[in-house]
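Teaching note: in complex prediction, the entire set of molecules is handled at once rather than each chain in isolation. The prompt given to students was simply: 'Predict the structure of this complex.' The entities are:
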Amino acid sequence: MSADTSQRARRGAGRRRLYQWLFVLPALLYLVAFFGYPLVRNVLMSFQEFTPTTYFTGESPFNGLENWRAVFDNPLLGDAFWQTILFTVGSLVGQFTIGLALAVFFSRRFHLSGVIRAVLLLPWLVPMVVSAVVWRRIMDEDHGVLNSFLELVGLSADGVPWLSSPSVALLSAILVNIWIGIPFNMVILYGGLQEIPKELYEAAALDGAGPWRTFRSVTLPMLRPVVTVVLVLGFMSTIKILDLILALTGGGPADSTQTLGTLTYQLSFMQLDFGQGAVVGNVLILISAVFALLYLRVNRSDVGRGR
Amino acid sequence: MKQLRQPRRETAAAGVRRWGNTALALLILAVMLFPVYWMVSTALQPHSSIASVDLIPTSPSFDNFRAALDTQGGSLVTSLVVALGAVVVCLALAAPAAYGLAQFGLRGGRGIVFGTLITQMVPGIVVANALYSAYAELGLVNSYLGLILADASLGLPFAIVLLRAFMVSIPSEVVEAAMVDGANRFTAFVRIVLPMSRNALITSGLFAFLFAWADFIFALTLNTTDDVKPVTLGIYQFIGAHVSDWGAVMATAVLSAIPAAILLVVAQKYIAAGIAGGSIK
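The expected output is the structure of the full assembly:
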């Protein structure tokens, strides 16, 4: 092969590579514009004075750590932090436990199981704002059907202040979010259960293992990868929830359901201090990133343990 | 004889147990779907003051739905336009990218797939925070295009992951055969790969639609006027003031839940496949 043709071949290969990249490039640019840029811009904005004046003057001068100082001096930040953690962990535990129980239950063979399983998806498919509005009506302290029901069965005579008391509202939001998340957990865990080889259960039965023992020694270990996926995805979607809380309680009463998400919204879009909103947004991202790193570590040691 | 009879008795017992399980499953369903029932039931009871809602609508009427359509009909159309637009943007970007990432063995391709997964961790409010100022400069606030582009971000990572998982299994010979016949890679992609990926495209399209239809954060933050007001925002504004007419609110809620209900009935297998496939692979 002469130098000329090999060069031409190389140029041909290069052109082919370029052509191949054209398939990926539009999506890549979009991802950079709608995810990469906001991440970078939020970091920059957190060091900028970005207030209503900005919209008149068009200027957003850098102001050092002023936004950070203001946000960290704001007692709401600590509350929002802990309430975010409580909301996320509480939701995950509830969704996962009930989702797993339902997945195990629906793994039995019985009539209509497929249809019922499908219809159970509805709460997850309905827009979250809509669910929140419906629950807001159901959980009304004086006229909600939930309190009417509790009264009817004699559980509580004078009405639980589901959304109107600072000490209950966060729990109520968690309960609603558990309701929303159950179908998702159920579907994925159900899929995982179907992949477990039947022989393992037969072997367990031969060894004389009871249902609980079988569940602990066969089902749970085999389900582990799926459990990790479900929990990670659940965490990712729960920690950033905003619509549910805004429509259910608006962050109240007395900021008792304020999370890092709602706080970002309030600072940026209600008080129009985008710089301070960006600070809280960055804190939220940081928490997610720490969690992502932990997940990667756990996963790597999983691989290291050898398969 | 004994051996013949025993299995049959077992089947009878199993049959009873199966119906018992079905009954329990129906009970679970009733509890889980009560809020949905309550939404429909309240919507069907006209002029229901906040205190008096019957458990079962004894004299159902569609007055609330008429009122809801009058006030929120435009929002429903807006939601439809925005969601369909987001589906188009999403699939137009995701399908070629997924194919490229699945079949070309591009350097850095794995990094892009990983990055795509990571984007799902970015909270919408953080994106909105930065987009708002960018949109203000670009004149995209209060525009359909702006909202469509933002809403497409809700389904795109999911669509790329799902389509890529599917397209990995397309044998490259199929495309190469078409290219021998004179098609270039892009026409081969359009004529061969896309039709083969029909189900995966439908699934990711459905989810892109649902995500965009349910969007609230971008609708709330990227619009300062009522020019572009999807139904999620309409409902939120409804409850912003003191609510006096829950019947109309619930009727709007029912209308906005209709796409989910339709998809559940018509496209059930795609939905289940989407939740499982898009998340695990």
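Point out the following to students. DSSP finds 14 helices and no strands in chain A. Chain A touches chain B through 86 residues (CB under 8 Å).
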